[in-house]
Design goal:
InterPro entries: ConA-like_dom_sf, Glyco_hydro_32, Glyco_hydro_32_AS, Glyco_hydro_32_C, Glyco_hydro_32_N, Glyco_hydro_beta-prop_sf. The protein has 540 residues and is mainly β. The chain is built from two helices and 35 strands. The chain has a seven-stranded mixed beta sheet with strand order 1-25-34-27-28-29-30, with no helix packed on it. The structure holds beta-D-fructofuranose (FRU).
Length: 540
């Protein structure tokens, strides 16, 4: 025991000495250098190391991806299906791609799950496990995984018909590996609506029925069923509620407990495109009540789940352990999704995030924050209980895991200006100012921005009335082509794509006031696709 203690003390002393050598302090105005022992290769032939390839976010091995679909947990595995076009790196005839994960961090690619057929392309939708075999499509010993999705009929579209979209069903008896389309498709036909899509199906334990929400242009519709095949229309919501800058897409509806109370509320997510606060696509939410038939709210204001530009079509998992509400969004925006400067593949998903509901004053706020499991791939590099910042003085960090830009920053602090930059003067600037209650992200000089006029045009500024105290918890997560920012545990989040010409290797911290930053921690985030790791994508 004593020996162990000695050993521990010795290791601790070594670590302190190592830290003193690796972090140059600020007094002499030189940057604090954070070094790493790992040598990183950016050899373009090595796996998943192409320019801008997300290192710890899900992206398809190749070709085009958009919305997450069919998020369902079954037998210890999280399934992620997604809108996929295997023919190009722009949107095209939609299939459902498929990936799985045991921890929502490491992903394994699988074969394409759903292919277009004579009824149409396979647009967005959702999946459940029919545990009691209510559909009769499996058995109770081997319950079917059921996907309900939108068919988009191209022949109808070419013929100028309006009712191109209907809802179809497919089932799998081998955990999503292979699928059979239901022979009676479509299961919900179209009554002459131009936009009629993106069904979210779920089991409602209160009514003991299957429920489904879909969108029809400017409103959501709710349906109910005993067997997942025959659906009864119940009600509609939203014609005169919320934002209507664009068509409604990808609904989701679920119940959450309000933190620190016994109250429970229903949350309705609706993506819209265009019409988001910072341009193009975005996801709004409504807090209200739902009885299995209709959704009601007295919410007057418009609420957004994310104030960045790149979190769209996000929906949540069915069937999770402990009923956790886990959300994944598509990390792009229809304004410029087709033109981002990647090769071979296009776009990624947000980190999976846990949703929770807090009442701030009289206002319900849907918070989203990265799942706990993220800590399993964090490698702590620098931490400081108290770091003094003088008004308008800079503290500069240089982190040496060059060509990496995988970065995690957490701190409790007041007003901050954080600038990420690189050797070719690209810079990404984040500013919080409590006096004017505003947070802004400036990616106008963040790297390659000129692939689309709307991408780097604006500074994204957001009013932040729900940040009620001057000190905030900042959590910032940087991957090779994205930044995700969470303030006060996700009361506000901002998700943005970025395409720096060289990896950011510097961070400067400034403030317009003297302050002590508390509990500052900086960590590297390990890549999830490393060749020697078991997470290497493989095809079954
Ligand atoms: C949202 C969306 C959905 C549609 C899918 C088509 O991004 O437009 O409404 O089902 O993409 O790929």
């Amino acid at each position: 025991m004593q020996l162990k203690l000695h050993n521990l003390l010795f290791i601790l002393a070594l670590n302190i000495i190592a830290l003193l050598f690796s972090c140059k302090k600020k007094e002499d105005n030189s940057p604090i250098t954070i070094s790493t022992t790992e040598a990183i290769t950016t050899d373009s032939t090595s796996f998943y190391k192409e320019s801008f390839r997300p290192q710890f976010h899900f992206s398809p091995e190749k070709k085009w991806m958009n919305d997450p679909n069919g998020l369902v947990f079954y037998k210890g595995t999280y399934h992620l299906f997604y809108q996929y076009f295997p023919g190009d790196i722009v949107w095209g005839p939609m299939h459902w791609g498929h990936a799985t994960s045991k921890d929502l961090i490491h992903w394994k690619h699988h074969k394409i799950a759903l292919f277009p057929d004579k009824l149409g392309l396979i647009f967005s939708g959702s999946a459940v496990i029919d545990i009691n075999n209510t559909s009769g499509l499996g058995t109770t010993q081997n319950p079917p995984m059921i996907a309900i999705f939108t068919y988009h009929n191209m022949d109808f579209e070419k013929a100028g018909k309006i009712n191109t979209q209907s809802q179809g069903l497919a089932y799998s008896l081998n955990e999503g590996e292979t699928w059979t389309k239901y022979k009676g498709n479509p299961i919900i036909g179209n009554n002459n609506l131009k936009d009629f899509r993106d069904p979210k199906v779920f089991w409602n334990p209160e009514t003991k029925l299957w429920n489904l929400a879909l969108v029809a242009g400017d409103h959501a519709q709710f349906y109910s069923s005993k067997n997942l095949i025959d659906w009864t229309y119940m009600s509609q919501f939203g014609k005169n509620r919320g934002a209507h800058g664009g068509v409604w897409e990808c609904p989701d509806i679920f119940k959450l407990k309000v933190e620190n109370s016994e109250e429970e509320k229903w949350v309705l997510l609706i993506s819209i495109n265009p019409g988001a606060p910072n341009g193009g696509s975005g996801t709004q939410y409504f807090i209200g009540d739902y009885d299995g038939k209709s959704f009601k709210t007295n919410q007057k204001d418009i609420k957004w789940i994310d104030y960045g530009t790149d979190n769209y079509a996000g929906v949540t998992y069915n069937n999770t352990p402990n009923n956790e509400r886990i959300f994944i969004g598509w990390m792009s925006n229809w304004l410029y999704a087709r033109n981002t400067p990647t090769q071979n593949w296009r776009s990624a998903m947000t980190l999976p995030r846990k949703l929770s509901l807090e009442k701030i004053g009289s206002n319900y706020v849907l918070k989203n924050t990265p799942i706990q499991q993220l800590k399993t791939i964090k490698i702590p590099e620098y931490s400081k209980e108290l770091l003094s910042v003088q008004a308008n003085n800079k503290i500069a960090f240089e982190y040496n895991h060059l060509n990496q830009s995988q970065f995690h920053f957490k701190a409790l602090a007041k007003n901050l200006k954080l600038t990420f930059s690189n050797e070719v003067n690209d810079s990404l600037v984040l500013i919080y100012d409590h006096k004017i209650n505003s947070f802004s992200v400036d990616r106008t000089h963040s790297g390659i921005v000129n692939f689309e006029t709307d991408f780097g045009k604006l500074i994204h500024k957001t009013e932040t009335p729900n940040l009620t105290t001057p000190t905030l918890e900042y959590q910032i997560i940087l991957d090779w082509s994205s930044i995700e920012i969470f303030l006060n545990g996700g009361v506000y989040s901002f998700t943005e794509q970025i395409f720096p010409n060289k990896p950011y290797t510097k961070l400067s911290i400034q403030s317009n006031e003297d302050q002590e930053i508390k509990n500052l921690s900086i960590a590297k985030i390990k890549g999830i696709w490393e060749t020697n790791s078991t997470s290497k994508p493989s095809k079954k």
